[in-house]
Design brief:
Layout: H1 25-36, H2 43-50, H3 56-63, H4 70-86, H5 91-108, H6 111-125, H7 143-157
Helix pairs in contact: 1-2, 1-4, 2-3, 5-6
Length: 193
């Protein structure tokens, strides 16, 4: 029995695809559409535009499945990386783009747009400092903090502060408050003698 040679059946059909397998024209078109029209077209539409007419939904799934089409998935990843590098935002490119926008706006006579673009260039370069002020709500203050803040306001306003009693905003009658109309010494606007 040692003299017998065991033969394996010959593999018939297409060879297995790997990441190094070359793309067909349709696959290359599909890769380009998927990467450049992302968000604009569905995967099914990308497959249809690439030339996969029958079963485009299934074809799109198979093309983006790494077990079925690893070479297409590798090509999509490589193209996405290439596009990310091409359209990356860095300081030099950003400032240059703003300069181009400014120059075109000046040519068109759009001076406010030109000023805005130049301002943004200055902000990108760090020439302008953006400050913001955070004010605290009275709800988050203690009674002592509110009284101290009121005393500070009184001091800064001087004689302009009128002492009075706090009344509810929904009350209809306010005693001791004079609205004072010209020619009415009593200040009662409803009295018409």
């Amino acid at each position: 029995m040692s003299d017998q040679v065991v033969e394996f059946p010959v593999k018939i059909g297409r060879p297995r695809t790997t990441e190094n397998t070359r793309l067909t024209k349709k696959q290359a078109e599909f890769v380009e559409l998927v990467c450049t029209k992302e968000g604009e077209l569905t995967l099914r539409e990308c497959a249809e535009k690439a030339g996969y007419k029958g079963g485009s939904h299934t074809r799109a799934y198979e093309l983006l499945n790494p077990r079925i089409s690893p070479h297409v998935v590798a090509a999509v990843n490589a193209r996405r990386k290439e596009l990310a590098e091409k359209y990356a935002v860095d300081f030099g490119r950003h400032v240059k783009s703003l300069q181009i926008i400014r120059d075109r706006a000046l040519e068109d006579g759009a001076y406010s747009a030109a000023v805005l673009a130049e301002h943004r260039r200055g902000m990108a370069a760090g020439l302008y400092v953006s400050r913001s002020e955070v004010r605290h709500s009275i709800d988050s203050m203690s009674k002592a903090e509110v009284e101290a803040a009121l005393a500070e306001i009184k001091k800064s306003m001087g004689e302009k502060v009128i002492e009075g009693e706090v009344i509810e905003s929904g009350s209809e009658v306010v005693e001791g408050v004079s609205h004072g109309f010209e020619g009415d010494p009593e200040g009662d606007p409803t009295d018409s003698d």
